[in-house]
Amino acid sequence: MSQRNATRTYSAVQIASAAVGAVFLLVGILGFIPGVTTDYDMLAGAGHHSGAKLFGIFEVSVLHNVVHLLFGVAGLAMARMARTAQLYLVGGGIVYLALWVYGLVIDNDSSANFVPVNDADNWLHLVLGLGMVALGILTPRIVRRDNTGSHPLR
User: Fold this and answer.
1) Count of other CB atoms within 10 angstroms of residue 13
2) Are 40 and 34 in contact (CB under 8 A)?
3) Could you say which DSSP state residue 34 is in?
4) How much is the mean pLDDT over the chain?
5) Would you say residue 154 lies in a domain?
6) Is the residue at 128 inside a domain?
7) Angle at CA of residue 122, ends 131 and 37, nearest 5°
8) Cα atoms in the 13 Å half-sphere on the side-chain side of 61
9) What is the tens place of the pLDDT at every residue in 26-56?
């Protein structure tokens, strides 16, 4: 009786989606840790009045952290299939580019800044958006195998 190979291989886009998702999960968790998040006692539910900053740089709120957690879970879940992994990266990248534009046009001290964002967040959103779209478009969806059925990188 032969055993089936229980090893599953993943495409590059699936690995990228899982990695991005894992980073978002980590960032969401870190946003709730005093010390990593400075002025933690000023962490608000939402809005620009939250004085807490992740790593002392990026404005965060409970809403902001929960969004990171949900975005992370989505990345891990969508990494299960190459097509959904690509959708996560490209679609999520577009969302972050839209958030970057939104951050540029709103007044950071207005009620429109409900996420909240600051200049550091805006630059990060630009880089994340461009990086995620690039990963989604440029990373291969296909796992190539040689004639023996083994993964070519092993």
Assistant:
1) 27
2) yes
3) B
4) 85
5) no
6) yes
7) 100
8) 15
9) 999 999 999 999 999 888 887 677 788 999 9
Cis peptide before 116 (omega within 30 of 0): yes
| The predicted structure's pLDDT at residue 119 | 84
C-beta contacts of 113-116 below 8 A and 24+ residues apart:
113/47, 113/48, 114/46, 114/47, 114/48, 114/63, 115/46, 115/61, 115/63, 115/64, 115/67, 116/46, 116/47, 116/48, 116/49, 116/50, 116/59, 116/60, 116/61, 116/64
- In single-letter form, the type of residue at position 18 comes to A
Query: The whole model's pTM is what?
Result: 0.81
Q: What's phi and psi for 124, nearest 5 deg? A: -65, -40
Contact 121, 129 (CB under 8 A): no
Residue matched to tokens 């577009």: 94
- Is there a domain that residue 147 lies in? no
Residue 47 identity (one-letter amino acid): G
Helix (H, G, I), strand (E, B) or coil at 58: strand
Specify if 144 maps to a domain: no
Domain count, the chain: 1
CB crowding 69-106: b at 16 or more within 10 Å, else e: bebbebbbebbebbebbbebbbbbbeebbebbeebeeb
Nearest CA-CA partner of 96 in 23, 147, 5: 23
Task: Give dist(CA 63, CA 70) in Å, integer.
Answer: 10
* Residue numbers of the domain that contains 80: 12-138
